[in-house]
Design brief:
Helix content is 26%, strand content 28%. The chain is of the alpha/beta class. The protein starts with 6 loop residues before the first helix and ends in a 7-residue tail after the last strand. Its main location: cytoplasm. This is Protein-L-isoaspartate O-methyltransferase.
Length: 194
């Protein structure tokens, strides 16, 4: 456990990021800056994460074709679309966004990509994630809680992975054979998880 992504999946992530350019998921006034490798503002204090961080998280998540994936803090819809591209039409991706205006805008951005096996819903205030029978195969969290949220760990299925920044440290949570292992993978800056 705790291994880095294999080269095949890294190539899949790179292909997805080329196909689903960040520019498509930014407000008009930010689109010219889409190639800059740093966070860009959306609104209400939310940001579009820098491409190198998104790539790192997706490679660490090791998303298999056909997986059921939860995207917590889906924002502009970019990560939800990338996850949908990785799982393919046999998978399912649910993006959750707490900010109602951002959730509507992100859903429209996602709809424009023609990936009907993915959707973005408004997150339920006061609740983390959305449990499903059998648990999620992968969970991506793009906002930082102050401590590891047990509510999200509990939503992982068997042979599942979650990538989540806790405070300023990236964590990989792996669930296998009824055991949960957590490893850390560098420092990053994210907006707080609300």
């Amino acid at each position: 456990m705790g291994e880095q992504a294999d080269p095949t999946r890294a190539a899949d992530v790179a292909d997805a990021m080329r196909e689903l350019a960040r520019e498509r998921f930014l407000p008009a006034q930010q689109r010219a800056r889409a190639a800059e490798d740093h966070p860009l503002p959306l609104w209400h204090g939310q940001t579009s994460s820098q491409p190198s961080t998104v790539s790192f998280m997706l490679r660490l998540l090791q998303v298999p074709v056909g997986a059921r994936v939860l995207d917590v803090g889906s924002g502009s819809g970019w990560t939800t679309a990338l996850l949908a591209r990785l799982v393919g039409p046999g998978g399912v991706v649910l993006g959750l966004e707490l900010d109602p205006e951002l959730a509507v805008w992100g859903a429209a951005n996602l709809d424009a990509c023609g990936l009907p096996w993915a959707r973005i819903d408004r997150a339920t205030p006061g609740a983390l994630g959305r449990p499903v029978d059998g648990g999620w195969d992968r969970i991506l969290v793009s906002a930082a809680p102050r401590r590891m949220p047990a509510a999200l760990v509990d939503q992982l299925g068997e042979d599942a992975r979650m990538v989540i920044p806790v405070r300023s440290t990236m964590h990989l949570v792996e669930r296998r054979e009824g055991r949960t292992e957590i490893t850390t993978h560098g420092s990053f800056v994210f907006v707080p998880l609300r």
